[in-house]
Amino acid sequence: MMLNRRFISVPKSQQKKLLSQFRGTFDAVDHWMGCHCSTIEQAGLKSLLSVSVFDHCLRGDEAIAMLANVDDLTQHDHNMKLHKFACLLTSKHESYLVKLKGQKHDKVSFKKFTSESAREHVLIPKDYRTRDWERFVLAIPSLNVLYYESCDFTHHFFSDKQLRLDELTPLLSACDLHAI
Description:
Layout: E1 7-9, H1 12-35, H2 40-43, E2 47-52, H3 60-68, H4 72-92, E3 96-101, E4 107-113, H5 116-122, E5 137-140, E6 145-148, E7 154-159, H6 169-175, E8 178-179
Antiparallel strand pairs: 1-4, 2-7, 2-8, 3-4, 3-5, 5-6, 6-7
Helix pairs in contact: 4-6
């Protein structure tokens, strides 16, 4: 029954159009994460922007210390800031949930949210200890970005075009988040 579904597949013609728009970005992100390139340019990306509750990129030891004992209240507070940002962003820009299909999870499928409440439910960040492959990925065609939920109270925008921060700055300010 349709009422219980939070998202549905977009028509095949739109799937092809979205895949054509984002194929290079998916490939570059996959390459960047797989080979641990030192720069995004080496992977073929033009832009990487991270949105975080932290005001700077955490060093390894700093991240371990900061994330070792996150209490429930702090986690909830951080997650609500990121959730508010994702909801504001997707209310201003048409967006699609990205799902990987197939035995090797190598086929990209774009899903449309069935309602505003379904969209808001899907965009609730997972527990910070959840693995990244269980998190949401959004395609936002008007910004030409893929928006990835991540595990350390930081979400990422990837694009094979130059990103315009001016559209995101008011949303970041409204949510008490930082661009890093």
